[in-house]
Specification:
Helix content: under 10%
Oligomer: single chain
Order of helices and strands: EEEEEEEEEEE
Number of helices: 0
Number of strands: 11
Structural class: mainly beta
Shape: elongated
Strand content: over 45%
Length: 120
């Protein structure tokens, strides 16, 4: 079956950097878009960054200039480079994929979530 496998979460000090990666496991026909959401305790889940198959990119205002999303179509992966991290970036980060599977057509997939903690 198709799954999204996340890696790269952890603990980092304010001002530090962290890189998240998400890989598609399983056979797919294509990728429409992939990206990252995050959710902190007591807050709504928000879209952090998104990249489409045509390389259209969107960021939430709070991370512009600090985070960079990229993709590798051949490897079916998406990454989020996070620089100048702040305590308010602390959250569970979820990879998502708008994917086209061989059986079933276009579907949304979600990773299990990875904890990012920014603290001194």
């Amino acid at each position: 079956q198709v799954q999204l496998v996340e890696s790269g979460g952890g603990l980092v000090q304010p001002g530090g950097s962290l890189r998240l990666s998400c890989a598609v496991s399983g056979s797919i026909s294509g990728i429409v878009a992939m990206g990252w959401y995050r959710q902190a305790p007591g807050k709504q889940r928000e879209l952090v960054a998104r990249i489409t198959s045509s390389n259209s990119i969107n960021y939430v205002d709070s991370v512009k200039g600090r985070f960079t999303i990229s993709r590798d179509s051949a490897k079916k992966t998406v990454s989020l480079q996070m620089n100048s991290l702040k305590p308010e970036d602390t959250a569970v980060y979820y990879c998502y994929g708008d994917l086209v599977v061989i059986v079933g057509g276009r579907r949304d997939y979600w990773g299990q979530g990875t904890q990012v903690t920014v603290s001194s």
